[in-house]
Amino acid sequence: MASRQPDRKSWWMTGEGVTLGAGLVNIALGIVKTFAGSAWGSVALMADGLHSFSDLATDVVVLVGYRLGRMPEDERHPYGHGRIETFATLVMGLVVGAVGVGLAVDAALTMKSGEVAEIPSAMALWAAFVSIIVKEGLFQWTAFVARDCDSRLILSNAWHHRTDAISSAAVVGGILASRMGFSWGDPLAAGVVGLFIIKVGWNLCLPAFDDLTDADPGEELLREVNRVIGSVDGVKGQHKVKARRAGAEIFIDADIEVGPELSVIQGHEIARDVNRALHAQIKNVRDTMIHVEPLGAHDGIYRKSVKDSTMEAAGKIALEEPDVMGVHAIRAIPLETGYLLNLDIELEPELTVSESHEIAHRIKERIKALSEVGDVVVHVDIHGE
Q1: pLDDT tens digits along 7-40
Q2: What structural domains does the chain harbor?
Q3: Which of 37, 142, 284, 334 could form a disulfide with 46 if both were Cys (CB 3.0 to 4.6 A apart)?
């Protein structure tokens, strides 16, 4: 039994664990506040207790949305189920916003009617204080887990807990105001709280709506994606770098430019290195689509590779010798120290072996001075044969 304890503890720090735990706490709070409001004459506290019971419905939405959204891809959903979590986040934002609207409207109607509520007992304050402490604790717990698993849905539930704490604070303010003879204190505090909760609901809905419509995930993420891609060996440039979110998961598309002298296999290996780097250095990357292009293709100009430029320069150097009648069969083999260049030069048959050797040696030394060249082999052929 002792060996399982760490697993149980860690489960309560998961999205499912914290949501189920919050649901159990909401049941207990609902019982306490409803009983206290009835026993000590606070209608606001009774309403707050019923509100805690209604929170169970949103806990179910969060629990189902989180579990379904984290399911792996299948034949019908090749990109996974992350949008379910995003949609559930949008629902939570609407629920939170509706709570704020309800509080604000109820407060406005109460102030307009001028009704004087029954003065509640001081004991009702203690129940409201307990609710504030517990709900703020739920917010801190849930927000910590949300940041750890990078879930906007769990974070939306955390803010729902905080709006409940603020609602209970409004109850406290209302009870104190009523006991001090200020009948408008309760609805005024509730109205201000309602406006704040509406703003929280908007802040939850907007990013969820952006994710559902594949909006830009933000400059910070794109800067990090560009940094990671640019740090991979063999990448000469990148463009059309895009990213989108589906729940907590990130999908990345990018075009990378590589040396045009590389083979298809070498270009593919660089793309695989980019893919591995993105998964390793950016949290929650689900999939990447890396398109490989030769350097300069994005500008419509296919630049010469270092290999082609080096062979061209070697040919020009050889032809600068007055006795060289032609150059052919230039080959470049990449080595760790630079390219090994092989080339055939054509000389007049009247030249002696010593003269031919001297010409080949001069050409070799001049070509070796090129920065990309490691060694040179010059073959002598008779011109015309």
Answers
A1: 444 777 787 888 888 888 888 888 887 787 777 6
A2: 2-212 (1.20.1510.10), 219-299 (3.30.70.1350), 306-382 (3.30.70.1350)
A3: 37
